[in-house]
Amino acid sequence: MKSLVFIPQGNPRLCLSDSCLPPKSKPFPVAIVASLASVAIILVVLVLAFVLKKKKRSILGALQRPPSNPPVSPIQMNKKRFTYSEVINMTNNFQRVVGEGGFGIVYHGLEYLHTGCMPAMVHRDVKTTNILLDEQFKVRLADFGLSRSFPVGGESHVSTMIAGSPGYLDPEYYRTSRLTEKSDVYSFGIVLLEMITNQPVIDQSREKSHITQWVEFELISGDIRTIMDPNLQGDYDSHSAWRVLDLAMSCANPSSTKRPSMSQVVVELKECLASENSRRNMRRGRMEFHSPAKVSMLIDTGMLPVAR
Hints:
By secondary structure, the protein is mainly α. It has a domain at 84-292: Transferase(Phosphotransferase), domain 1, CATH 1.10.510.10. 44% of the residues lie in helices and 5% in strands. The chain has nine helices and six strands; from the N terminus they run H-H-H-E-E-E-E-E-H-E-H-H-H-H-H. It has helices spanning 30-63, 84-90, 106-116, 171-176, 181-197, 211-219, 238-251, 262-289, 292-301; strands at 121-122, 131-133, 139-141, 148-149, 158-159, 178-179. Strand 2 (131-133) and strand 3 (139-141) form a beta hairpin. It is elongated and about 140 Å long. The N and C termini lie far apart (176 Å). It comes from Brassica campestris. It holds the Pfam family Pkinase. Keywords: Membrane, Transmembrane, Transmembrane helix. The chain crosses the membrane at residues 28-52.
């Protein structure tokens, strides 16, 4: 009797068709999908960048659009110190008012805060960087983030946390925390001194670092030319200059009771400005009288004096 023996090796292949073979797994096209996804992401980023750039251009275009009434003498509106000749040109030799807008001229604005508002307000951060120029060179008193109002009832001060900018901060307010409208007067006095002297408020390289100390030291000589802005080249009325300097130092007095009110400051500055404008008009009249055209007209009309 023969037995069956199972031998796995060497058996002939009985199924010659592919149907008997196990199915082969097809490779997933990962590389193709990754490439398509990368292209899609790049396109989305480019579209977003284009939209944002277009929006930014439209905003900048609106901000940089020229005004309907351009200034007499346009100057780049970058943050800078204007030269004396530029100021002369902007104001048409001080005939055109520069400084009305917002609350108006700065000292008018402070006077309005102190006497025109109900309740009265104190700005608390009057300084040159908070006095802005618009595209027509009109002054705007800005940044009322630290301003405080006085409660209705006639209180002369409020007790509050000390806030302000170094150099412009009222020393009495700093010592006592008692805020009054005279604190703004002090800060405005410092701004006046900056304008008069063209000196920084605090300069550690000076023997007297604070501008009030420096002015007091220079006043010992009695020569206002050492204090006035050298860019003016002496083209100012010394009497008016002394009045403005005295007013600025009065505003910056360490004692609030010795400082003038903003209403008094307005009156004094108006008088000084009128005096300076009168001097300039007289000088302009003399220059026109002695101009070649004027002399020629006098010759033609026989109005020149005849030597005897």
